[in-house]
Amino acid sequence: MRVVILGAGYGGIRLAIELERRLHGGHWRGQVVLVDQFPLHQLVTEMHQVAAGSVLSDFATIPLAKILGGKRVAFRQATVNGFDLPRHKVRTTQGELIYDVLVVGLGGEVDYFDVPTPRIPGLRQHAVGIQTMQQANTAQARLQEAVYRYSKEATKGAKPLTVVIGGGGMTGVEMAGQLADEAVNWSREYSLPTGSIRILLIEAQERLLPGLHPRIAEYATSVLQKKGVTIRLKTMIATVEQDRLVLASGEEVPMGMLIWAGGVRGPSVLADAGLKLDPKGRISVNGYLQADGNPDIYAIGDCALVLHPQTGQPCPPSARLAVDEAVWLSRYLTQQWSFPFVPHTTGAVISLGRGTAVAVVGRLRFFGRLAYWLKSLITMKYLYSIGGLRLLLYQLRIGIVGKI
């Protein structure tokens, strides 16, 4: 059996490792091929730190050679650009790949609300996402440029520089907390008056973190407000221009930059794949993570539409869900398990900036510094799970845990 895994994200890399372990242990016979356009595993959950300038991109990426070295996983650095499902082929920039089983773990793309037509004119042109390392680096460069340019104008009595974050979900909240900390550093670095750099978080719904318990949202709101973040709820953006937003109410909001954290959708390469997709471009899967009508194709991670068997509602995409899917699928493909996948969606850890976070573990909730250290422990556990003690020590040496 030749298993081709598309994407070296949280789900893809964990699935490749789990299958290789069964190869190594003699519990399964097959071939594992992992495909990604970059030779790196990106810690997407830490991209808000890269975007804010708190860490370099090296802290949020791991060379695949550090993870796969010595393992029987064939890595192909290539970009997926098409599918030939009847012939069991994937087209890539490095040629075609034949599969017996195909696992699509290509992650998601920033949803700019313009498929099939733009709902917020100007959003894609003037906003920047932080879904990937490249986007986070772009956001950081534009932030530095905006702050530097503002520092030259501040002496002339310019109004405060407003950095807007669109979307009050987990990504937007983490970005706001991190930016609030960095704004203090920028003000000190450029000798700017207090309040010169304003962080504005806009959310269309009635509270932040709408998918989590209200107490979690209340705590996050309180922490961000104490850090000086302005939060506007039940506020919708109608139009985005280069230096301002126009809200649905008609109000105009001047801005220096817009970071968009309004959600993700399936990768555009899936649009013509011949698979059943939901309106957000995600692959519709059954209880065994199989693409509808294609029993040899599975989908995991952000590009998969996974419905909770009890509620029938889509499971919110997360790194933990992708890892759980990968572990289950490795056992299903090697015929160790035959029962359907049951998602566990009660856990989340949300950073609120340096030294503070909020965490949900089952029915338990943790706040402040304890949650912050819990996030570090979870990251260390994850690093150990994909690369063992050697990878964990390597990441500790470069100081990643101390930055999380």
Description:
The chain has about 400 residues and is of the alpha/beta class. Helices cover about 35% and strands about 25% of the residues. The chain folds into 2 domains: about 1-110 and about 265-345, FAD/NAD(P)-binding domain, CATH 3.50.50.100; about 125-260, FAD/NAD(P)-binding domain, CATH 3.50.50. The protein is globular and about 70 Å long. The protein starts with a strand and ends with a helix.
Largest sheet: 6 strands, mixed
Enumerate the spans where pLDDT stays under 50 for 5 or more consecutive residues. Answer: none
Count of runs of 4 or more consecutive helical residues: 10
Share of helix, binned: 25-40%
Q: How would you classify the helix and strand content by structural class?
A: alpha/beta
Termini separation comes to 39 Å
Overall domain count? 2
Based on Cα principal axes, name the global outline.
Answer: globular
CATH class descriptor of the largest domain: Alpha Beta
In total, how many beta strands?
26
* Strand fraction: 15-25%
Strand order of the largest sheet: 5-2-1-9-22-21
Radius of gyration: 22 Å
The CATH topology of the largest domain, please?
FAD/NAD(P)-binding domain
CATH architecture of the largest domain: 3-Layer(bba) Sandwich
User: Can you give the mean pLDDT?
Assistant: 93
